[in-house]
Here is the input.
Amino acid sequence: MRHFVIVGLLVITATLLAYLGLGVVGLLPEQASAQAVTIDWLFNLEIIVLSFLFSLITVPLLYSLVVFRKREGDETDAVHIEGNTRLEITWTVIPLVIVIAFSYLGALNLGEVRRVDPQALDVKVVGFQWGWSFSYPEYGLKSLSELYLPVNRQVLLKMESRDVIHSFYVPEFRMKQDLVPGQITELRVTPVEPGWYTLACAELCGQDHAAMRAPVVVVSREEFEAWIEQKQSEAAEASLSGPSADRGEEIYRQYCKACHSLDGSNGTGPTWRGLIGEKVRLDNGATLIGDEAYIRRSIMEPNAQVVEDFNPNVMPVFGLDELQIEDVIEFIKTLQ
Amino acid sequence: MKKFFSLGLVKGLVYQIIWTAIGAAFVTLIRWILVSRFGFEMKLFAFDRNNVFFTEPAWVVGGVFGVIAFMVGVGAVNDWVKWALGLETPAHPQDEPGWRGYFGPSVDHKVIGIQYTLTSLLLMSIGGAFALVFRTELTRSGLQFLDPNLYNTLMSLHGILMIVSILLGIAGAMNYLVPLLVGAPDMAFPRLNSFSFWIAVPAAVLLLSSLALGGFDTGWTGYPPLSVRAPLGMQMFFLGVFVAGWSSILGALNLIATVLRMRARGMTAFRMPIFVWTAMATSLISLTATQLIGLSFQLVMFERLLGMGFFNPAQGGNPILFQHLFWFYSHPAVYVFVLPGLGIISELLPVFVRKPLFGYKWVAMSSFGIALVGFLVWAHHMFASGMNEYLRVPFMYSTLLVAVPTGVKFFSWVATLWQGKIRTPTPMLFILAGIFVFLLGGLTGPPNATVSTDLHLHDTYFIVGHFHDTMFGGYIFPFFAAIYYWFPKATGRRLNETLGKLHFWLMTPAFIVLSLWMMRVGLLGMRRRIADYDAAMGFDLSHLIMTIAAYVIALSVLIFFVNLIISIRKGREATGNLWQSRSPEWQVPSPMPAHNYPEPIEIVGRPYDYGLEGSVYVKVGK
Here is the structure.
């Protein structure tokens, strides 16, 4: 009996120490979304229960190792205790109840995380090897390289992938959602804390998976409106001024850089250096002279004319619009 | 030299290499005929950066030829061929004497058990070495000496080599122990047993060959569409796993037959040693689920080779379908990996505590509980995958349910220790560490099971830490315990205790530090499977600590190998019942003779009645 009392007290102490200790260490990143607050509530509840279960097993284990050690010179066996059916039923049924309770709480918590706000801001997210692009259909903005979000307004991210599976993950938002080719997946986030965060791909997607990141900026409503206006006027200017090599270079950095070099070395795709006017040997044995039409077709139908020694089905269709394609061609023209 | 080439293993490998080339040349010849005679447009040879000389279809067919040739070369199918031709074979084939016997197709379950174990240790060393390489790369942020492609390949190979190593390790333990524990002279199908072991060898060769054939950057999960675009090494990986699956399936079949049909007189179900229960549960999973990983990989192989768009949305396929097929095996597989280890824990605890296993029947049934529930939880790997959202809730319930039978094991182990007379030689130390580390792995499971918290944890280092805890606690620690415990049974000598304790006291703290730090950076948002991390996240120090811990683990395993080599020649002789066990194999002198028990044994009591005056479990002889 004495043993049980001591162990009981030690279990309670250890539970408190484990829970408080983990709290001091600090386990999770900043809470930057309404969903993170909800999810962290469940985390906290689980850490309490797990601290208790951890102590419940390790304390009697360590206690036994100290107290029930074989004494020097004692070669006899210990007491013959085969088991105890009541005890076995107890430690089957109680965990079962806990498990069902947690499943129920987990389902409620998930429901809370997915709560729909009909006023949510629609943002289209596109993932590709190895980068991101963001569009704001409400404001007519396309292919931006940063994700700007207004604080305290739910955002509905509609996500698609151009090539392989990627995953949208911002640790401070506490959630991830895969981007799957051939379907649109959704994630709802309500940012609550202005600041700079990093979006990173969480599903292994090939060579430069580690570097597939994009900035996420949460700003006040006013700053968001101002940013939208600025982007809109930039877009309007671009459509008036005709093709621009500078904008082409920006598109290159966002979409093309991972596979196409500018210095003559071949990567996953052929280099862009000296593309115009050079002879190109294709996979099927044909040859052609690099010109605007060839570049345009390669962007829109990447598998139509594959260069020799490169693999088809690797380059995605990025869905660039007419102006962007002209910008890119303009940029390639400068690379002679 | 001639003697060297007559070794089964060497002959098999030579055959495999030659016939891989012949198979590839054969396909190339057919393609040449199609091109020159029938005007097909296709490549005959490939010289781009991913492929080596032959085209992908040629390599794949060559790989299949190579596996078959290996099995012929090593001699694992000799008897069957002779029977098919109507020739006689000896009823009790003799191995070559001495160490040469271990390099040929023996049918003795003890030899095969040791062959499995040594192959497993070899693959574990290679897989561990790969881990050290990329662990070193991760010491600091920024790329140091690996390019991302090589990093991804090494990381992927580490995963699959360790998995195959674990499968071979548990097969080794089950092969060696189960016939001894049930009192059988051998496994039910000795030649099939030999076949099951040997087919794992060309499979391992295929897996390793992927390193030379462009590698693969998908992780061991091989999700399409990424795996459809990966280099040629991907196909060698798929083929290697496919072939290794045969080893699992046939081995499991053999083991089930042995346990069902060859138990000693008097050994009713609830008088079986607990390890036999877990071996049964594990084998039932292997026998029925392994097909699914083979199938899913085969579908991707066909998608690559024949353009069948099973997982390509542009052709009406669905990438998520692959994940369902894959995890339908690969989740139960983790119970395949850990159940035998948990069985070893339950088997050895009573010996060192000198008390019966608390609640024997409950512990026995809990293994089947885990195996059964394990089949119903696979989609918890897919909470963020984009599958139908409502599916996440039932899978959360089923996943948390695994905690119940697992809890029964933990409570029973603690109750076994309670009021015992605990001895702590090296095997017992590894058992205790196994319990503690598996507890860490078990308790970090539920946060991954509840959907909303998993949305944060999924695909982070938290999962990596959790998984390594379950594998070390459920397999590595009990596996080492088993080697320290049964080494005298196999060799008649015991392993050096001082080196054993050194191994233990280096590995255990280092591993606990490593896994806890993995979970820590994971909780803070470090993604898994990345070649590099952002310095701004402030993880450099954590990674330095993890790398040091990894090297300490490697050092401890090196000490283990030194111990193995020294003790096999010079270890203290131990031919008797070294641990005062009640188990049948310890009632006869070590090393175990060729056909096990000189006379059939009889079971007359319960296995773990330590401390019960006058009780007997086994009667050897009349």
Remarks:
- Chain A has three domains: 2-64+88-113, 121-238, 242-333.
- The longest strand of chain A covers residues 121-128.
- The mean pLDDT of chain A is 89.
